[in-house]
């Protein structure tokens, strides 16, 4: 053989060998996820990579803020879809195209806003937080995950763990209130509920912590506005729930719309790369919020869409939701060297990792089950009812107006929320349908059947000036033993792009409540809202006042059980109710002030209307002395605190003990009190239960500086429980 022939032979042999060893590792379920990711990435063209980092929408749009023309032809190469259809058949058809017609057969990741339920709708997250019951919150997510996965959704854009302290911001309804720890605990419970222990299991979906980070600080509570957050506040308040969610195993994170003191969250390398990946070790994917990459131009940090794409992906934003900026620009950006292919590879790697973790390569299709086998099972409805009942907060109960006494024979049930279905679901109702909802009227009629007659008159609308039914309503009230008024907010008054300058109900509702109270009959006001309400216009007229939030599909039944006393209210506020919007910001864990008793408004009371943690019960709980097992502790040691709580009333009930810590002197001033632990227990009437908190100095007594470094400083600390306060020292 001459040299040329030998060379040719060698080449052919090498190619043959390469062919033999070209085992498609990524198709092997037994191979490690990282090996599968690398193998697949190594086979992808630039175009395929760019398609992986792209998300389009599919299906009917229900979000008024995100109007987008429906995607008619789904590319089989698309990385992800915002999947709004509920049809398993459509889903299988689209997925089959991706798996069987695309060159590499990469399945599509389908995401959807399953915020508080998919078809069975649970209370809004703010209400869920008021239950202080992580097990029920987790269960609601488990139910939602099952209904979603059976309909082709593998990924929810939930939970939202934005610590929200301005009730004017409509999105307070979507998170877990004003406290970082409570947001973190509920967020972690949600993550575990959605994802379970194994993302490949039937009925598990990937969770998404959002909006990373600082979105709730929108200036003046105006949605989408600029946010000013100091590095210290970022670390103290905004970041902790995200860190807890990452530790709980959240598969994905969504970047926020807002900019953080000038650097938009979607182009923020510090938050998305240095903190999230560098400090916390997160290896899942980060998706943008809707159109957020494109919006970098509007936010003034990118001259055009190409620059927006370059900034976002280099900062660590892996997937572009809907605006198509990545798809249009990334190939050219990589080819010209403005964006390194390594950066794109890393984004693709993170997306593929989530797809492998979800088991999509092994199980891309779903069983085409009819609706009744997917949704609204008896168990799902029961879980929704239980969580709704525990989320409701009894704010006032003069002379034991509630529960409804046995001699009540006629109840006048009125107000715009009484016979309403859609608004009881709140914003982001997933695939919930109004027809599934039990109205308050239906719930109360069923609960009191054979005991009391229910007279329904709507009486007034949510707003406007129509008083034409006032007289008829007053007559019904006069003829009743008890008047129940169902007032509140329409579902589109909170949620995204739903900021309100005033927290009061419209004048017509306040007037109606006062008119009904004038009849002299005992009045119960049920408030259904997506935010704290300025109750000055209704509270004086109400003998009993209950915040029922937007309680979801089983809302009416839950309300009825609370009224009858079948359920003893156990909800406690996860957010402070200010007296009025002008009193804001008002939240319990403020930093210590130079003159704590001065500097108050001259023309408004200082105390909020109802503080964080507030909520009444039909029974009374008596707290024994707060005991510590030691007065000093060293690093590495634990201190155990205990308190015994007795149900001194006649009705069984649940009590939540909230444990707060304060650190009066530190190198960086700490808040007046911080929630560090909570526990809810059932206590039968006449019995006692012990509640415990084991203090771990590193976890509970340390705090971050403005770079996130945790400081643990010796000195005095105080433990606070229900008005009691005891001192201990770290030495
Ligand atoms: C919202 C997100 C949501 C996304 C997708 C955005 O407008 O801010 O919370 O997940 O739309 O619907």
From TrEMBL:
Broad class of enzyme this protein falls into: hydrolase
Reactions accelerated catalytically: Hydrolysis of terminal, non-reducing beta-D-glucosyl residues with release of beta-D-glucose
Stretches assigned to the Fibronectin type III-like domain: 655-725
Superkingdom: Bacteria
SMART domains named among the record's database cross-references: Fn3_like
Record-stated family: Belongs to the glycosyl hydrolase 3 family.
Gene3D superfamilies, per database record: Glycoside hydrolase family 3 C-terminal domain, Glycoside hydrolase, family 3, N-terminal domain, Immunoglobulins
E.C. code: 3.2.1.21
Biological processes annotated in GO: glucan catabolic process
Alphabetical UniProt keywords: Glycosidase, Hydrolase, Signal
SUPFAM superfamilies from the UniProt entry: (Trans)glycosidases, Beta-D-glucan exohydrolase, C-terminal domain
Protein name: beta-glucosidase
Upper taxonomic lineage: Bacteria, Pseudomonadati, Bacteroidota, Bacteroidia, Bacteroidales
One MF term in the entry's GO annotations: beta-glucosidase activity
Signal peptide from the UniProt entry: 1-20
């Amino acid at each position: 053989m001459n040299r040329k022939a030998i060379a040719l032979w060698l080449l052919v042999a090498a190619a043959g060998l390469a062919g033999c060893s070209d085992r498609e590792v990524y198709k092997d379920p037994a191979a490690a996820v990282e090996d599968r990711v690398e193998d697949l990435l190594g086979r992808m063209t630039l175009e395929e990579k760019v398609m992986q980092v792209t998300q389009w929408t599919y299906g009917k749009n229900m979000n008024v803020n995100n109007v987008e023309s429906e995607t008619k032809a789904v590319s089989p190469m698309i990385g992800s879809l915002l999947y709004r259809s509920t049809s398993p058949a459509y889903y299988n058809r689209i997925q089959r195209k991706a798996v069987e017609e695309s060159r590499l057969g990469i399945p599509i990741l389908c995401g959807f806003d399953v915020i508080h339920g998919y078809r069975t709708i649970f209370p809004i997250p703010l209400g869920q937080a008021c239950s202080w019951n992580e097990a029920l919150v987790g269960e609601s997510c488990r139910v939602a995950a099952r209904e979603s996965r059976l309909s082709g959704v593998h990924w929810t854009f939930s939970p939202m763990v934005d610590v929200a302290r301005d009730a004017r911001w409509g999105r307070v309804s979507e998170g877990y209130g004003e406290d970082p720890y409570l947001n973190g605990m509920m967020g972690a419970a949600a993550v575990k509920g959605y994802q379970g222990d194994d993302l490949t299991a039937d009925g598990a979906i990937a969770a998404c912590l959002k909006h990373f980070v600082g979105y709730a600080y929108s200036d003046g509570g105006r949605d989408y506005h600029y946010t000013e957050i100091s590095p210290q506040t970022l670390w103290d308040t905004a970041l902790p729930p995200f860190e807890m969610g990452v530790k709980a195993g959240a598969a994905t994170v969504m970047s926020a719309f807002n900019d953080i003191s000038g650097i938009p969250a979607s182009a923020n390398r510090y938050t998305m790369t240095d903190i999230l990946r560098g400090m916390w070790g997160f290896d899942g994917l980060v998706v943008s919020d809707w159109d957020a990459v494109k919006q970098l131009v509007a936010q003034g940090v990118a001259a055009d869409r190409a620059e927006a794409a370059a900034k976002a992906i280099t900062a660590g934003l892996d997937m572009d939701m809907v605006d198509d900026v990545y798809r249009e620009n990334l190939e050219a950006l990589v080819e010209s060297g403005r964006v390194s292919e390594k950066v794109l590879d890393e984004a693709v790697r993170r997306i593929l990792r989530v797809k492998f973790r979800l088991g999509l390569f092994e199980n891309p299709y779903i069983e085409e089950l009819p609706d009744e086998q997917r949704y609204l099972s008896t168990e799902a409805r029961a879980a929704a009812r239980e969580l709704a009942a525990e989320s409701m907060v009894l704010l006032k109960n003069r002379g034991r107006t509630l529960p409804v006494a046995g001699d009540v024979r006629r109840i006048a049930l009125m107000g715009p929320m009484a016979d309403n279905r859609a608004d009881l679901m709140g914003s982001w109702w997933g695939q919930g349908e109004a027809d599934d909802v039990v109205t308050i009227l239906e719930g109360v009629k069923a609960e009191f059947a054979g005991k009391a007659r229910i007279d329904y008159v709507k009486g007034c609308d949510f707003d406007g000036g129509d008083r034409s039914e006032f007289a008829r309503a007053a007559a019904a009230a006069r003829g009743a033993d008890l008047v129940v008024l169902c007032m509140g907010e329409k579902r589109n008054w909170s949620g995204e792009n739903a900021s309100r300058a005033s927290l009061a109900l419209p004048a017509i509702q306040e007037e109606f409540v006062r008119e009904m109270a004038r009849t002299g009959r005992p009045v119960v006001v049920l408030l259904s809202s997506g935010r704290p309400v300025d109750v000055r216009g209704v509270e004086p007229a109400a003998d009993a006042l209950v915040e029922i939030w937007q309680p979801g599909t089983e809302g009416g039944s839950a309300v009825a059980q609370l009224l009858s006393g079948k359920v003893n209210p156990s909800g406690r506020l996860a957010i402070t109710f200010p007296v009025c919007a002008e009193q804001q910001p008002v939240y319990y864990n403020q930093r210590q002030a130079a003159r704590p008793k001065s500097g108050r408004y001259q023309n408004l009371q200082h105390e909020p209307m109802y503080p964080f943690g507030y909520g009444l019960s039909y029974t009374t709980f008596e707290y024994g002395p707060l005991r510590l097992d030691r007065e000093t502790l060293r690093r590495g040691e634990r201190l155990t605190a205990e308190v015994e709580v007795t149900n001194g009333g006649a009705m069984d009930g649940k009590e939540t003990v909230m444990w707060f810590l304060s650190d009066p002197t530190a190198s960086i001033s700490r808040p007046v009190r911080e929630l560090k632990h909570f526990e809810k227990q059932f206590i039968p009437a006449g019995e006692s239960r012990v509640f415990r908190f084991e203090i771990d100095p590193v976890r509970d007594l340390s705090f971050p500086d403005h770079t996130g470094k945790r400081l643990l400083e010796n000195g005095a600390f105080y433990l606070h429980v229900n008005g009691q306060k005891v001192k201990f020292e770290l030495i």
